[in-house]
Design goal:
The structure holds two protein chains of two kinds. The termini of chain A are far apart. Chain A is elongated. Chain A has a six-stranded mixed beta sheet. Chain A has one domain: OB fold (Dihydrolipoamide Acetyltransferase, E2P), CATH 2.40.50. Chain A has eight helices and six strands, in the order H-H-H-H-H-E-H-H-E-E-E-E-E-H. Chain A is 27% helix and 20% strand. By secondary structure, chain A is of the alpha/beta class. Chain B is an all-alpha fold. Chain B is 74% helix and 0% strand. Chain B has seven helices and no strands. The N and C termini of chain B lie far apart (93 Å). Classes of the chains: A alpha/beta, B mainly alpha. At the A-B interface, helix 1, helix 2, helix 3 and helix 4 of A face helix 1, helix 2, helix 3, helix 5 and helix 7 of B.
Chain lengths: 202, 192
């Protein structure tokens, strides 16, 4: 089989060729993207991060939702939090013996509402299990501009924890300084943000 | 209240993003359609556009005015889409592992993979990066240099991987063809 035959066979199974998914609504998307994000700098970046979109860093920049019906007017007029505010300190709730399975049902609005602290933040530094997050948006609770999270999990199944990456954005919920054991999948996505918006009424 | 200059800069930035988005939206959407679960495509696509908006200054070759050559900006944009896709997959992977632990069932086969099973199976024998390089060649129609920009490999490494992957696929598919032909011949022979 030569290149052309292989290419023809590959094209025959191209999912985009046979898909009946609708074309993206570019106008609506542009509108939503540009109006959602209110912290864009208009001057060129001078960061020392590599300009090539590395696999992890590329998606990290996505901070704010483009979902319909989200009112970001609150964020747009919010003043930047005072730099002097002390960081909020959180740690993981260690397994209380109830078994992780019972706590790891899919996150829903009812569960979220039981937690008095909720925010969206970007990891700015990682030192072993100590994660520093810059708060991008408070859903409920404090007004600190940074959060120190002690991500030590003792004797828990690895798949329940969240692995943090600098530059990535996360949605975190907690109560009395404790983040529940099964808070994995905290990476910020439009779907997860929508859940938080519904839970905390924004 | 923004100054006149800030407003002008913001407008100019919006115009540049508008030009970029119009040039790359459909190809990026197709890229994701080909690789992500149908119900995840829209989310990942929205995420990708948002990253492009925030990292507009980093897009190589993006000047003022309309994008005259989408091919010059597409590889970098595919790279962003690939990053967003990878994030979504990692999150899904954790959820799936959890579900598997709780229910001990195997994940169902993806829809659309029942046609041409031998080609899907052959692609499955490639490593993830080799497969991606192959798909970028076959579906996105990129050159080795462009594939290098998407995957952060060198063009040389891309050429080598692509060559080996194509050879492997061809060999597997040829073998399948021979097997099929052999069976058909065998049926005829048994009548003698």
């Amino acid at each position: 089989m030569n290149d052309e035959e292989l290419l023809a066979r590959m094209r025959a199974i191209d999912p985009a060729r046979t898909s009946d998914a609708p074309q993206p609504d570019i106008n609506r998307l542009l509108e939503a993207t540009m109006t959602a994000d209110t912290t864009v700098r208009t001057s060129p970046r001078t960061s020392d991060r590599p300009r090539r979109p590395l696999l992890l860093a590329a998606a990290a920049a996505a901070v704010l939702t483009v979902g319909a019906g989200i009112t970001w007017g609150v964020t747009a007029t919010r003043d930047t939090p005072p730099a002097a505010a002390a960081p909020l300190v959180l740690s993981l709730q260690q397994d209380t013996g109830g078994g992780p399975a019972t706590a790891c049902a899919e996150l829903d609005v009812t569960t979220l509402r039981q937690y008095t602290t909720a925010f969206e933040g970007t990891a700015t530094s990682i030192d072993g299990d100590q994660i520093t997050l810059r708060v991008d948006h408070w859903y409920r609770g404090e007004d600190a501009s940074t959060v120190q999270l002690d991500n030590t999990h003792e004797g828990q199944l690895e798949s329940f924890g969240q692995e943090f990456t600098v530059g990535q954005t996360y949605l975190v919920y907690a109560k009395d300084g404790k983040v529940p054991v099964c808070y994995g999948d905290a990476e910020a996505t439009p779907k997860l943000r929508s859940l938080y918006d519904r839970a905390y009424g924004q | 209240m923004e100054s006149m200059l800030e407003q002008e800069l913001a407008r100019a930035r919006e115009a540049r993003f508008d030009a970029l988005a119009r040039a790359v939206a459909k190809p990026l959407h197709r890229y994701l359609l080909r690789r992500a679960d149908a119900d995840a495509v829209d989310d990942i696509f929205a995420e990708t556009m948002l990253v492009l908006w925030r990292r507009l200054e980093d897009v190589p070759g993006l000047g003022k005015g309309p994008v005259t050559d989408p091919d010059s900006v597409l590889p970098w944009c595919y790279g962003v889409a690939r990053g967003c896709l990878s994030n979504a997959r990692r999150a899904d992977g954790r959820r799936l592992r959890l579900v598997e632990r709780l229910t001990r069932t195997a994940p169902p086969p993806k829809p659309g993979e029942t046609d041409h099973p031998e080609l899907h199976a052959a692609l499955g024998t490639l490593g993830a990066l080799d497969r991606e390089v192959t798909l970028l060649w076959a579906w996105e129609g990129l050159t080795p240099r462009e594939i290098a920009e998407v995957t952060a490999l060198t063009p040389n490494a891309v050429s080598i991987r692509l060559h080996r992957a194509k050879k492997k696929l061809a060999a597997l598919l040829d073998r399948k063809n021979d097997d099929k032909a052999g069976h058909e011949m065998g049926e005829g022979r048994s009548n003698r």
